[in-house]
Amino acid sequence: MTVEVGDVPEAKRYEARVDGESKVAGVAEYIRTAELVAFVHTEVEAEYEGAGVGSALVRTALDEARAANLRVLATCPFFAGWISRHPEYRDLLYQTRSKVSD
Predict the structure, then answer these.
(1) Exposure pattern of 34-68 as b/e (b: 16+ CB <10 Å)?
(2) Neighbour tally for 15: CB within 10 Å
(3) Contact predicate 18/26, CB 8 Å
(4) Which among 54-58, 91-95, 97-101 has the top mean pLDDT?
(5) What is the mean pLDDT of the chain?
(6) What is the C-alpha end-to-end distance of the chain, expressed in Å?
(7) What is the spatial distance between Cα 57 and Cα 96, in angstroms, rounded to a whole number?
(8) Contact present, 44 and 53 (Cβ < 8 Å)
(9) What pLDDT digit, counting tens, does each position of 28-78 carry?
């Protein structure tokens, strides 16, 4: 099975398709600013769960964020969990530069 992932900026999401089908197998929705991309929701169709569609969505989205020099805010539990299992992507995570003192 081949999973193809593409960014659909007008829909503010990445879409995954399997084996060249036109049907969308999964999506990763985001909010993007000039410096940050927040991944807010990921959904994979039931028939494709466990087939690597979600991982392909995350890996592609994070690789493109890295290429665009964007920080990542993983508010989506799927993205957060995936990044926690793939430490090579942790450097992308947004960390506040604010310093609050007491």
Answers:
(1) eeebbbbebbbeeebeebbbbbbbbbbbbeebeee
(2) 16
(3) no
(4) 54-58
(5) 93
(6) 54
(7) 26
(8) yes
(9) 999 999 999 999 999 999 999 999 999 999 999 999 999 999 999 999 999
70 sits in the region (left: phi over 0; alpha: psi -120 to 50; else beta) called: beta
96-99 LR contacts (CB < 8 Å, sep 24+): none
- 71-74/36-44 β-pairing: parallel
pLDDT of residue 22: 95
How many residues belong to the chain? 102
